[in-house]
Amino acid sequence: GNLVGASEFFWSPENLVSDPNSLNPTVSQSGTYALTAVNDQGCQDVETIVIEILPPVEVQLEEDITICRGEEYPIDGSGISGATGISWSPQFGLDDNQSFTPTTFAPYTIEYIATGFNDVGCTDKDTLIVNVLLVPEANAGDDVSICKGDSVLLSGSGGAIIDWFPTSTLSNPFDGDTWAKPTVTTTYTLT
Length: 191
Known about the structure:
The chain is an all-beta fold. It has no helices and 15 strands. It has strands at 8-12, 31-38, 44-51, 58-59, 65-68, 73-74, 80-81, 85-89, 103-104, 110-117, 123-133, 152-155, 164-165, 177-180, 189-190. It has a four-stranded mixed beta sheet, with no helix packed on it. A hairpin with a 5-residue loop joins strand 10 and strand 11 (123-133). The chain is rod-shaped, with a radius of gyration of 34 Å.
C-alpha cells in the first residue's frame, strides 16, 4: 500500500493477519480487512479490502485407460474440483477439449494433459494416457459347398483368441483350424 504522511499503521482484525504492522501481511481466510493509517497529529484514515480465498484447483484424473481402435470412451471428470474451466492438450481425438468430461476417440495411444483453472489464475494439471489397441481382422476363409454327411476344415485367423459359432457341429470351436460337419446349410461366424 501507499501510506503518504503516515507515521504508523496497522491491519485489523489483528488475529487474522500474519503481522498487523506489516504493509504486506498474509491472510489465511476470506474476509474484509482494514488498514488504518495514523499521522503524527493523530489523524487517521481507514481503507478496507475484501479478500476472497478460493478453494484450490485440483485435477485428479482417472487411471490410464485402454480402448480398442474405433471405440469411444467418455472421460470421467469427477476428480476435478475448484476449477471454473479446463483445457485438454492435445485436442486431437477429443470431442471437446474444454469439457470437464470429453469423449475420446483416439486412433492411437495418446497422453492427454488436462489443465484446470479458476477465474484468478490458479491452476492444476494431471495426465491421462489413452492406450489404443489395434483391432484384429478376423478371416473365416471363403464360402464352401460340401455334400451332406461330409466334413470340411474351417481355417480361421486374425486374433489371439479364436471363437467359432455355432459350436454344435464343430470339432473345436476355439481353434483356428476346426472340422465342421453340418447337417444343413450353416453360416459359421468367427470372432
